[in-house]
Amino acid sequence: MRRAWDGIRQGADRIDAATPAGRDRAVDALRAFAILGVVLGHWLVTALVADGGTLHTTSPLQHMPWLAPISWAFQTLAVFFLVGGHVATRSYSSARAKGTPYGQWLLARLARLFKPVAAVLVLWTVTATALLLSGADFDTVRTLVKLALSPLWFLLVFAALTAATPLLTRLNPLWPLAVVLHVDLLRFGLGAPQSLGWVNLAAGWLVPYTLGAAWTRGELDRPRAGWVLLVGGTAATAALVIWAHYPASMVGVPGSAISNLNPPTLAAVAFGLAQCGLALLLRDRLRRTMRRPLAWAAVAFVNLSAMTIFLWHQTAMMATTATGLLAGRLPGLHTSPDGLGWVASRLMWLPVFALALTVCWAAFRTYEHARPAERTDRRRSRVVRAHRPSTGRAALERPHV
Fold this sequence. Notes:
single chain, mainly alpha, two-stranded antiparallel ribbon, 19 helices, 70% helix
């Protein structure tokens, strides 16, 4: 055991030494927090209930609405868009300074974003076809495919904002915030069609994305900016939930008339502003924490595997659920989430989900990185020009999506 621990520490030290000195480790820490928040949130609030020969989705928030604070902790998409906007605008500015054409810059970023998607689409196309041909219930197959591919909507929005980065580098976040405000006013106050809300799918996530651009410009460096966002966003969210009757849950709840997430509402955007403010206030503390090799190695691992983790976490949960059916209806896995007993049981299943996700990571992580031949060529060139340990350096130097 001690030898294994010493090996882990030595590996962490090598990753720490290979990281460029100028890298802002707080950015990576915030991205890792956002990714893991989404994963844990889905694992906690998504339930696949076995009802006879079918599986259908429900949520503990539907049966126990007082658990809504869980969604406040794990709905972290605003932080991801904040970091994404910051990294994309910084990357684009650097590309312009080097004379890199816009098309080349965009292609490189989207390739890192969508290359891992192909494996998910192929596997689930084959799986869904096989299930249908074997006589599986159509509604069950549709439920599984919908859950597996649900992360893709986020990637499409993120890709669109990335493509529009040159137009967004100077955009004030108040403009998309005003769009969200007016869309909600028309929907909920003046009886406009609810389909109008889908305008907020772009405008709502533009708010944290353009905040990231403001971060790049240095406009959010002072603590005052973080405090204004945190206090103002919290107060606005509370007011909207209490007096305007927006849902308290910051994720969608089956059977609810209004979802704060699909599409984003003013309450979700205000809550995102509070999250972004807290993230900005934590930057210095995160930078100090990330000086510890073990903490930094963990964050670096999540960042290097971010797309694999994000794309396969739902598949890992469903694979566990399907395998568990061989033993019958298991508490916290196939039963209705209508009490604290289910919550306790679900918490015990989380390590099993994590183990299944590890299997998925081992099988599909290569789609997130260079091809073996490319990695070999890069490794050879590093040996020639570098004397420091090279573990993880190329990946750490590469700008992340």
